[in-house]
């Protein structure tokens, strides 16, 4: 495809000109072709929040978790530019992986927080994003030097609140799981429901160590020390 035609194709994707995009796709353009920065058409659709374009590209075989040269997937761009509906589409319909890290160890949650988008942060957390995930510098999504530069105070407060709530919820699940496995009283109504939620939650993996045959034959279950390892907790 000639360079002039290629430029028109990328412009069509970025501006949502479906007729132009369809024309070039029917004449040799590929859904996973890349620009100089390794971005695909789906990256551009995510940048602009163009859900219909994203759906069209996915139907044509686009890869939802494709990473550009610095490791960003379309979900990163949707989060960075505050496109909540695009985040929903990529995660709930297209099956994007929320845990992917870029070349700096950041997740989509890092970008949503860094650029001051509390609603997207809360949504990503509700979908299993890890508030304790650290980038290559050891910074969690709401940490780092000059982290909230150009983010207003209200958004800063909301983002920090969302992160704190997610971390608190994770620790509560740890306590409930440990208490129930050890047969202790939780002191709360609905303890069984909390236990089930913690044990089977997609964002709180639980590992129960396997005892040896001798332990299983000899021991009273109530006397065994069972530890629960939850990856999302400090």
How would you sum up this structure, described in words?
The protein has helices at 3-15, 18-25, 41-48, 51-59, 74-80, 84-93, 108-114, 118-126, 153-181, 191-200, 213-218; strands at 206-207, 229-230. The chain has 234 residues and is mostly helical. It has 2 domains: 1-97, Serine Threonine Protein Phosphatase 5, Tetratricopeptide repeat (Alpha Horseshoe); 109-182.
Which features characterize this protein?
Ankyrin_rpt-contain_sf, mainly alpha, disordered C terminus, elongated, 234 residues, Serine Threonine Protein Phosphatase 5, Tetratricopeptide repeat, two-stranded antiparallel ribbon, 2 domains, Ankyrin repeat-containing domain protein, Ankyrin_rpt, ANK repeat
Topology of helices and strands:
Elements: H1 3-15, H2 18-25, H3 41-48, H4 51-59, H5 74-80, H6 84-93, H7 108-114, H8 118-126, H9 153-181, H10 191-200, E1 206-207, H11 213-218, E2 229-230
Antiparallel strand pairs: 1-2
Helix pairs in contact: 1-2, 1-3, 3-4, 3-5, 5-6, 5-7, 7-8, 8-9, 9-10
Strand content: under 5%
CATH architectural name of the largest domain:
Alpha Horseshoe
Residues in helices, as a percent range: 40-55%
Query: Rg from C-alpha positions?
Result: 22 Å
- Mean pLDDT over all positions: 81
Provide the CATH superfamily of the largest domain.
Answer: Ankyrin repeat-containing domain
Shape: elongated
The low-pLDDT segments are: 198-234
What's the end-to-end separation, in Å?
52 Å
Q: Find the structural class using helix and strand composition.
A: mainly alpha
Which CATH first-tier class of the largest domain would you pick?
A: Mainly Alpha
Assembly of the depicted chains: single chain
Largest sheet: 2 strands, antiparallel
Number of DSSP helices?
11
Number of domains: 2
Strand order of the largest sheet: 1-2
CATH topology of the largest domain: Serine Threonine Protein Phosphatase 5, Tetratricopeptide repeat
Topology pattern, helix = H, strand = E: HHHHHHHHHHEHE
What is the tally of beta strands? 2
InterPro entries: Ankyrin_rpt (IPR002110), Ankyrin_rpt-contain_sf (IPR036770)
Keywords: ANK repeat, Repeat
Pfam families: Ank (PF00023), Ank_2 (PF12796)
Protein name: Ankyrin repeat-containing domain protein
